[in-house]
Amino acid sequence: MIVAEQKPLPEIRRMISPYERVLILGCGTCMTVCDAGGEREVSFLHNALRVAQSKGGNEAHHFLESTLKRQCEPEFLEMLVDKVGEVDVILSLGCGIGVQAIAERFPDTPVLPGVNTSFMGISSEQGVWDERCAACGDCRLEDTAGICPVTRCTKGILNGPCAGTKNGKCEANKDMDCAWVLIYKRLERLGQLEKMRRYYPMRNFRAIPRPKRLVRTPVALGEDDG
Amino acid sequence: MYPSVSGNIQKYVVHRIGMPSRDRSFVPPCQATCPLHMDIREYVDLVAQGRIMEALQVIRGGNPFPSICAYICTHPCEESCRRSQVDKPIAIRALKRFALEFGGDRMIQVEARTAHSEKVAIVGSGPAGMACAYYLRNFGYPVTIFEAHSELGGMLRVGIPRYRLPRDVLDVEIQRLTRMGVEIRTNTRVVSLDLLFDMGYKAVFVTIGAHQSLRMGIEGEDSPGVIDGATFLREVNLGLKPSLGDNVAVVGGGNVALDAARTVLRLGARKVTILYRRSQAEMPADPAEVEQALEEGVHIQFLVMPTRIKRQDGKLNMTCIRMELGEPDASGRRRPVPVEGSEFNEEFDTLISAIGQAPQTPGDFRVRIGRGSTIQVDPATLSTNRRGVFAGGDAVTGPATVVEALAAGRLAASRIDDYLQHRYPSLDKGGRETLVGDLLPETVEMIRKIGRIEAPLLPAEARIKEFEPIELVYDWEAAVNEARRCLRCGMGAEILFQDKCATCLTCLRVCPYHVPYLDTMGTIQIPADQCQACGVCIAECPAKAIVLRKPYDRRHVTEELDHVLKSASESKVSPLIIGFCCQYGLFGTGTLANLWRVAKAGIWIVPVLCIAKVEADHLLRAFEIGAEGVFVAGCGEQCARENTVAWVHNRVQKARKVLSEIGLEPNRLQTYVPSATNAYPAEWLDGFVEQIGGLYLASVIMKEVKVDSR
Questions:
Q1: Neighbours of B179 (CB within 10 A)
Q2: How many CB atoms lie within 10 A of CB B231?
Q3: Which of B240, B260, B320, B546 is in Cβ range 3.0-4.6 Å of B541 for a Cys bridge?
Q4: Do B162 and B281 belong together in one domain?
Q5: Domain with residues A2-118, CATH architecture
Q6: For the segment B581-591, what is each residue's pLDDT rounded down to a tens digit?
Q7: Do B3 and A57 touch (CB under 8 A)?
């Protein structure tokens, strides 16, 4: 799941200050789950902005709130067509993908990011999220016992651990587990320690073209019959 | 109001559209068990909030004579109360009595006007007859009650002793009937129904009760000094004082036997012994009353049955035999079997036999009689074999409870209405589902155990001196605290908008009772039979997909807030302070209601049903409309739930962050929970008001400085 964090209120106020009519647009999937831009956060931000405005600010905004199931699908964005005409700006509480999807769909309306899209991760407990995947496009989890060194090692090294590991923690942050120690322990548990002994060649990230695009080639009907 | 705010209000509420206003709660077991289907959960909840007048309205809406039930109802609701799975059931009857006494039930007038010309005769003025008259009169029929005795009330008058049901209570209810325009003919024994039809009555409701005592069928039963229970109670209740002697025996184990024994004590007998042929567990009488009788000094001999009575020298020489319990019989109780050769003799002055009663229907009624001399009726319509003749109450069921009789009377009234209006009986299928299923052990474990608060009783020595009512009423605080124990079965949270639910599992993780679970399809379920309606998941759900099942609860905080905001915006007093206070504890017990009255003007209280239901949004809205300070006050240790405050703290922190981000002092928003070090809300509130006053003054000065410098 994509994890994000709502931008500080002053920054949001600064962004919307040139505009009068603001649509606060939530997203009902990842942003809801990570408490950054679901219906509750949309409503809370709306209230916060109104308090800010009523307590001494010079702004005079009109707010509209709405939450789509997902901002990253063109079909869901179609539902906004009527509303977009009524507003001067869209403050999207979707991730960076949602913001760009809106920008593409509504070329004449400015769109502002209300959240800082942070990473892809899991919720370890109520209210805590941890990064787990960097979407590198070349998954190595088979060899690393299901623990990703690209995201969970500070250095992202493929042949660890480095010399900075101490008591299973990382030298960069003493509260953070060393990913390679975790990998070693889990490989040991699975009886696959030989995987530690292999050398994995460095990858050439330049060779992966950006932005990436994925095209699922449809199988032509009748092809299977040969 | 700020222009942008007023211009925006419509859009603000837009997301609330689409919320159904229908009651989606389940019928709780108490209501399902009550023969009258009273909305018990509702009035108990209203008592818990200290809203006694409204509780009384709910009670009167479901019961024609609630004051009678408040004294002597056998409360099957308490037997089915799910709280007994946690500790002890809610004291529903005592709470009803509290609501009636404190809500001013005696002042309530009932009126009715005549809308139909068909006259209805009611034969017998017991609870069933009275209830039937009440409802028929409400429908607009001219109603006449015929009563053989000199006073109205049937068994309530001649059977129930005064210490259980004070006669003024009964008289008030009868007075209401008369005021409604019910015609009453006392001292009139109806011997033939044909006569009634000849007199122009179009329908007759036969509710003659079960006044005929059953005979023991033993030798010497007709000796002088042997009296049956029903006759004895009737004589005492109608003002006679039978001479009993010092040593009295009562045979039987039902409520009549107990009533008779306790009445004998109050008449001054030295020793009263109840002889019952089974053991205490099988006694049909209300266990609480058995206990009270024992306290008062009634002796009970179990597993004993009289076999012969002989009158000698002015005394009764009674031969008894000891019994033992055998196989269970048709009633499910173990059958008593005599023990061979265990006979013994005992001497008494008087013997009262109270082993059961049966109706005695005059033959000229020409209604079909069934088992146990009861009148046979169609259970759905209460109609007998004769056209236009309906029957109900003890005459149909055999000796039963007052609440069953009231229910029969109500049913008869609507069926007689159907009959007279030539309608097909509208059988009520019921709209809402009944809640079934027990609480799971893990839910029970998380529910705070709070013992049942019993209504106070007079001490036993004082009780037996006279016929004064023995049970006293709760005081305000005891009643509110007792009512707060209610688990609010079936009115908890539900995921109303499954399409909105992102299955984020917040509800599952935050529920204090571990109620929500993931089903095998990966969908979150909140089982209605476990949910305690605390509201934590509702305020935490990031998708706002969860609501409470009752429409009133759904809107409560928002509506109260709107209401307060409206009034507050009209008030000119500054600084404006808004407080969200728990309606159950602080407010319900009067602590905060009191504060509200004495506190300095400018403080407005939004009563909430537990502060766990206050969302961060609500706090911000209060600031938006101009509050200088906002506080949330909960009940702390008194709270019926564990750990509600932690959630409120989180939300307060979140709102405080916003305050500091827009340049307001975060301590304008505070939480108050009574604790050992901070036990007086008034003191705390004074401090808070002072603080806000200072901040407000500072801000005014700042503004003026700004204006001057321009």
A1: 13
A2: 16
A3: B546
A4: no
A5: 3-Layer(aba) Sandwich (3.40)
A6: 888 865 555 56
A7: no
